[in-house]
Amino acid sequence: MTPHAPYVDSAAGAAVKAADRAHVFHSWSAQGLIDPLAVAGAEGAYFWDYDGNRYLDFSSALVYTNVGYQHPAVVAAIQEQAGKLATFAPAFAIEARSEAARLIAERTPGDLDKIFFTNGGAEAVENAIRMARLHTGRTKVLSTYRSYHGGTSTAINLTGDPRRWPSDNGSAGVVRFWAPFLYRSPFHAGTEAEECARALQHLEDTLAFEGPSTIAAIILETIPGTAGIMTPPPGYLAGVRALCDRYGIVFVLDEVMAGFGRTGKWFAADHYDITPDLMTFAKGVNSGYVPLGGVAINAEIAATFETRPFPGGLTYSGHPLACAAAVATIKVMEDEKVVENAAHIGEHVLGPGLRELAGRHPSVGEVRGLGAFWAVELVRDRETREPLVPYNAAGADNAPMAAFGAAAKKNGLWPFINMNRTHAVPACNVTEAEAKEGLAALDAALSVADEYTV
User: Fold this and answer.
1) Which NCBIfam families does this chain map to (predicted)?
2) Residue 84: HSE in the Cβ half-sphere, 13 Å Cα cutoff
3) How far is residue 176 from each of residues 108, 185, 211, 246, measured CA to CA in Å?
4) What residues form DSSP beta bridges with 414?
5) Which of 52, 83, 148, 215 is most exposed by smallest CB count within 10 Å?
6) Which regions of the chain are under pLDDT 70?
7) Are 281 and 124 in contact (CB under 8 A)?
8) With contact defined as beta carbons under 8 Å apart, do 377 and 361 qualify?
């Protein structure tokens, strides 16, 4: 797919920006301190503004355009569904909804064969936790500090990053623990094996002191996304699975960001041969073309609600347009080998290319990832591993990352930046040439980051 040539209509862009600033209230933002880019169009791995500037999107929007922007097959499916049945209530059997559920269940691991549809990832997490609590009759839920699970009430309290702080009233029944992360090990480990063993012991100790019989669920991002793309060490997820089995705890994997090809497998859990009891999804299920998320449910938990009503629902659950987009997206991923492409790009282009950049730029502390899902950790000092900016930096403290981001955009790359990291998360069907173009732009931007190292 060849991106459209950018065009210039600065007056139209100014009008779009003015209306936005007058009326749109943006998420996660101090409204008077932001300057949203007015976007004129997008296709494939690129988007462009009204001034003729084109950007290679290394953020995939918010890590969800897995088949890129404006894929003709997905757009056509939405158009066709709109002409046939644009909307219908969730209590009915609708072809697009049934087919989307079937295709998803075919690809989820193990016996995760029942699909509860939501409008996005946060709602998926909300409902998964509700299911776990009702299934077990317990209240507490364990989640990790380096995590993000969504912005709704329960999901934000499960989240480990600072976006939780203003909404955390300490009464949501959430207990947090440390997951493994060797580069910044909280366990003073020197190897992946030590990190795994000590992290599992820490979790088991936490369970013991919290009381296993009070814990409904443990929720993990299979591979944490926004928090840093820390791939778990071999054996860790299997160890968590074993602890959950021992104590009758529901194991929930959050695959909202890592699922649907992002890591070079249909789900990140497939890398570790793990089947959770519940799995949340969203984003890549239909590349975000129409809001859709859900929970994949195993047979045991589904049986809990066979004759007992599940006390939850959404007006737009399994919306026909969203489900038609999911059906088309999954077929595109199958027919065009998008999952295989993500694996290839990760193994042969992004992984080697990012590691080569790390060897030349003192600002790069670590590179890690899989498929089209990579993080570059930026540091002031490689020896001490001091982050390029402090944790949750803002304003002047965040100047080095702001300068890096500005340099990336100047070179035609739209980066995904969080704290002291930039993530390389392009569309899963990105070409080798596009990925190399992104690496070249990162190379130039990292030279700016290098200026802040010691």
Assistant:
1) PRK06062.1 (NF004718)
2) 12
3) 27, 16, 14, 20
4) 57
5) 83
6) 1-6
7) yes
8) no
Could you tell me the two tokens for 409?
A: 């955009």
Whether 269 and 276 have beta carbons less than 8 Å apart is answered as: yes
CA distances from 435 to 26, 58, 344, 348, 429 (A): 30, 9, 11, 10, 10
State how far the Cα of 388 lies from the Cα of 452, in Å rounded to an integer.
7
- Tokens representing 133 are 């609590």
SS3 at position 269: helix
Q: What is the DSSP letter of 69?
A: B
Contact indicator for 311, 126 with CB cutoff of 8 Å: no
For the record, the structure tokens of 307 come out as 């004759």
Q: Which residues of 254-283 are buried (b: 16+ CB within 10 A; e: fewer)?
A: bbbbbbbbbbbbbbbbbbbebbbbbbbbbb
The neighbouring-strand residues paired with 377 are 366, 421
Q: Where are the domains of the chain?
A: 10-70+337-451, 72-336
CATH second-level architecture of 10-70+337-451?
Answer: Alpha-Beta Complex (3.90)
Strands, sheet with 174-177, edge to edge from the N-terminal-most edge strand: 114-118, 293-297, 278-281, 250-254, 215-221, 140-144, 174-177
What is the topology classification, in CATH, of domain 72-336? Aspartate Aminotransferase; domain 2 (3.40.640)
Alpha-carbon Rg of the chain, whole angstroms?
A: 22
Q: By the 8 A CB rule, do 225 and 364 touch?
A: no
Return the structure tokens found at 367: 């590179």
The neighbour count for residue 175, using CB atoms within 10 Å, is 16
How far are the Cα atoms of 266, 285, 349 from residue 291, in angstroms, in the given order? 19, 10, 31
* Chain Cα centroid distance, residue 130: 21
Counting DSSP H helices and E strands in the chain, the numbers are: 14, 16
Beta bridge partners of 97: none
DSSP sequence for 165-202: GGG--S-S-EEEEPPP-GGG-TT--SSHHHHHHHHHHH
Which 3 state secondary structure label does DSSP give 381?
strand
CA atoms of 141 and 426, how far apart (whole Å): 33
Cα–Cα distance measured from residue 421 to residue 440, given in angstroms and rounded to the nearest whole number: 17
